[in-house]
Amino acid sequence: MITIPYTTALTTLFSYGLLFAFGQLRDLFRKFVEWWKDSNLHGYAPICLGLEDFYVRRLYLRIQDCFGRPIASAPDSWIDVVERYSNDNNKTLKRTTNTSKCLNLGSYNYLGFAASDEYCTPRAVESLKKFSPSTCSTRVDGGTTILHVELEECVAQFVGKPAAMVTGMGYVTNSAILPVLIGKGGLIISDSLNHNSIVNGARGSGATVRVFQHNTPSHLEEVLREQIAFGQPRTRRPWKKIIVVVEGIYSMEGELCKLPEIIQVCKKYRAYTYLDEAHSIGAVGKSGRGVCELLGVDTADVDIMMGTFTKSFGSCGGYIAASKEVIEYLKFSCPAHLYATAISPPAAQQIISSIRVILGEDGSSRGAQKLTRIRENSNFFRSELQKMGFEVLGDNDSPVMPIMLYNPAKIPAFSRECLKRNVAVVTVAFPATPLLLARARICISASHTREDLLKALEVISEVGDLVGIKYFPAEPKKQDDGRVKLE
Ligand SMILES: *[C@@H]1O[C@H](CO)[C@@H](O)[C@H](O)[C@H]1NC(C)=O
Ligand SMILES: *[C@@H]1O[C@H](CO)[C@@H](O)[C@H](O)[C@H]1NC(C)=O
Asked: Any coiled-coil ranges, and where (predicted)?
């Protein structure tokens, strides 16, 4: 739960109000000019939706230089950001051939597998030569290579479930599989801050969707009890099935799921659990097996385990791991398996290889070192940010740490000032977050060195003072703690 300081909320609302008012005024003017020029296509409804279109034109475009910055390198701990310029007040941005080397605090490269890796890269290159970039076919036709079979076995074993199915895109894993698992007459109970892929999957399923307060098991129980007592709308028949959908780490909050308590509630009411581990698999837990391992939950208690390969494994695609029966059923009925082209073979090989490294099956201890490092880096960075007086969301051990910005003017200011100092950060605002809760989202990687982190802290502190986002008083530094030891 985020509590906004009263004055911050007021000034933030005022800023958005002002932007909105000016935008409306300009739109009014535009309409008048268009009417005058008589250039409108008569008889057609506008193709872009009203309020979203307004938001894009009048708010987003003003700060579009902070988003979609082209990158000219792998998303390693340092990246080459392509420099752009504008001749029309940032309405259009033109690329230069210059790049600037920036410290990367934005990619989900939790274990550092996004960069060239001594074990993974040669194997991925080998598979590229052998299998080509694409299977040019769906899984059920000619798109199942031996790599795909190996990958599914490897993933099932890694996450601790009897079987797994892999898709070529993480987003689609949620949005295409939920509608296959549940439909009309079913009930989905979804955490209020679940990812858009879950929201769209739930809506597309035709099931009734109810939302419970973010990460609040007691409210989940309340909703479950109420819904079970009431049954389906109108007919009041019992629900055909109930699925509770939660995430392991909430990517916009950096928070860990209260999984043990949620599972307890689900078991009590005989509801299935669906756990999205996009940001937690590989990143947390002693051997990288995600929140179940971290929080001591038996994977047998989670009915459907979902995750993506786009973060810790430095690849693409997603998986569903469950019982053999469920996976078999999904493979017969899920459109992402039946009709979509299979995951690219080099991407599959990258996942297999990175899992081997994580498990130490490459014959080195690099995987274990990466896991220790991501935890140490995350906890160090989070505590330092908090000491400086930033409002940082999320839990210890989570590599995602949002720094609250709130005010719309502070979004571009923070992003641009950091970039000027060669630190690339990601800022997120509405519609990805509620209107008042804009933030910068820092993602820490195992590939960051202590020097990288110290540089990042120095820049963020300086920019934080400049932009005015240290909402708490800083903790006074201890005398002997003034210098952090370099490794
Ligand atoms: C355009 O973007 C640059 C940085 O990318 C920024 O410094 C400048 O203030 C922006 N200009 C306007 C008019 O927003
Ligand atoms: C590229 O960088 C060089 C050296 O910093 C500078 O002189 C040049 O103007 C830049 N080019 C563009 C297109 O911005």
From this structure: none
